[in-house]
Amino acid sequence: xxxxxxxxxxSSRPTHAARAAHxxxxxxxxxxxxxxxxxxRDPKPVIFLGVFALIVLAAVCxxxxxxxxxxxxxxxxxxxxxxxxxxxxxxxxxxxxxxxRLIGSAQEFTNEVTxxxxxxxxxxxxYAFEGGSTPxxxxxxxxxxxxxxxxxxxxxxxxxxxxLSDLVASATGGRIAAEAFLAASENASAYVADYPFxxxxxxxxxxxxxxxxxxxxxxxxxxxAVVRMMLDQFGTETAAIFGDFANSYPASQxxxxxxxxxxxxxxxxESTGDQEVRDHVAGVFYNRLSSDRPYLESDATTAYEVGRxxxxxxxxxxxxxxxxxxxxxxxTPICSPGIESLxxxxxxxxxxxxxxxxxxxxxxxxxxxxxxxxxxxQQAIADNSGTSAGDGEAEAA
Length: 397
Fold this sequence. Notes:
This protein has helices at 44-69, 90-99, 106-115, 135-144, 161-171, 178-184, 223-242, 249-252, 257-269, 275-289, 299-306, 312-315, 339-346, 374-385, and strands spanning 79-84, 125-130, 150-154, 214-218, 355-360, 366-371. It is elongated, with a radius of gyration of 33 Å. It is built from 14 helices and 6 strands. The chain starts with 43 loop residues before the first helix and ends in a 12-residue tail after the last helix. By secondary structure, it is mostly helical.
């Protein structure tokens, strides 16, 4: 963060006038009826003076607090520059805006972020804000992105590292070459010191961890800087589900964090956009991995290996990514999954199903059929594909 916050010291011991204590002696008092000799006083002046004194005291306290706390906000026409780092939380951004005297407190900003459901839509970069901006205006400005010179990199979900390298080159006009991005993302161990979630990735590539999101790439950013932006975002987005990984569902099934991301990448490629379907597909894959025949039988893993839609022969071939021929997970993730697929492997459907089949209905919408037995699975294919029960095997998991 480019801003410097002031350190303010508040006194916890305000000064009060000392009052002397008077010892009480034994005295005799006589009671006199003074109503006859002393006129009654009108209480209104006394009440007025008391109220006036309270108003004055409140005003003094208010301005004294303002002077001590330094929260006098910028006026319209005054501008301040605020830099928001990649992966920075809404609370941290609110603190920066408050330090820049754009808002009175970070809470004003975070309340608007919550109301607008904008936590995942805040774009990093350097902003020039004018005094008098409302918290809502500040949130919407950050959602729109900085008006600075640079490139916008929109990374879709479930993209492979090879596809992403071409996208980076295109978004930056070739300034960051595809080869440079591939080289910068080749070895996860080069980043593990700063990103502990990569520990179980070893020396594999960063496939699976290059988080899909829209990024602002400044003109001075190189390939490594772009990689780090994506790793920062992965850490921020997955903190809630991977923060205590030892107690997560994948860990209970014997998976490392790297293997959980690996499985999520397959779920991403084998599912539709519906979260319930993703969760159910994840449940099926967990069932397969824990069965006596732990073969994932995913066409998507072979598609990653050959770089296109595979043939039936390629799907069943004994290659490193062939999950019909090899038990367990493939060597690496096959794409960078979005948060929905990562959530699915952490919160899968509790099911006994072992198979699923997707088909397009009369309206062109994808539908899923889940089955417990192979016979039910084959019948689902025959009922919904217009083929005989033996066909369509390469399209169904």
